[in-house]
Amino acid sequence: MPHLPYHFWYLITSFGGAGLTLPLAFAIALWLTVGYSWKLAAGWLFLLGVAVALVTATKVAFLGWGVGVPVWDFTGLSGHAMLATAVFPVAAFLVLLPAPPAMRVAGVLLALFGGALVSFSRIVIEAHSPSEAITGCIVGALTALVFIRIAWNATPGRMPIVPVALSLMLIALGLHNVHVPTHRWVTHLALKVSGHDRPFVRGSWRGLRDTSAPVAPFSPLPNTRNVAVPLQNPDA
């Protein structure tokens, strides 16, 4: 699949952007409140919030202090991978909750595959290393599956499923190319809490691996992106 055109992979990777997945997550919470219970909605937002906090913490740790795993080329969990594998399976589960269990499982598995495809696209376009995309995908999938396990036996209300499906579909299609500068925000946060003027960058590790000199402590480098990717698709 990597030999497919790059514009295809950029199309796929956009489905993991915060500008799409976060509104979709809040729409899911709204429908859970209306059709089921506010406790389910709160549980969903709590689990997703924990996952978002974990992604943010790993990125801040690297950008602010250079904390990462050089041997794995790991500088932080992929936000796109996490959000895609967390939000889309829960959206599929919500739509299929009134359906038979076998259909629910099939829908969730299909959505998980879609999230994994977004994760893979992050590697193909060189926005993330394999370790960052895989770990982000795992965290997102665990978030979705934990919530689905909690909500599996929820009693469907009288909410018609067609408006739910249409609203989620319209959000996904309508916000597909909406860009939210999450990387810029996280970088600003990292510099604020670390007190450094410039963020750490991935290139410092690559430079050290190319020399035989002893590894010296990292020092903040110019404010450049972790990887060379087009500006319209920032790392998240």
Automatic annotation (TrEMBL):
Q: Which residues cross the membrane?
A: 6-32, 44-65, 77-98, 105-125, 131-152
Domain Phosphatidic acid phosphatase type 2/haloperoxidase, by residue range, is: 77-154
Which SUPFAM superfamilies does the protein's record reference? Acid phosphatase/Vanadium-dependent haloperoxidase
Q: Does the keyword Transmembrane helix apply?
A: yes
Which Gene3D superfamilies does this entry report, sorted A to Z? Phosphatidic acid phosphatase type 2/haloperoxidase
InterPro entries in UniProt? PAP2/HPO, PAP2/HPO_sf
Q: Does the keyword Transmembrane apply?
A: yes
Q: Which UniProt keywords apply?
A: Membrane, Transmembrane, Transmembrane helix
Q: Tell me what this protein is called.
A: PAP2 superfamily protein
Q: Which organism is it from?
A: Paraburkholderia diazotrophica
Q: What is the lineage of its organism?
A: Bacteria, Pseudomonadati, Pseudomonadota, Betaproteobacteria, Burkholderiales
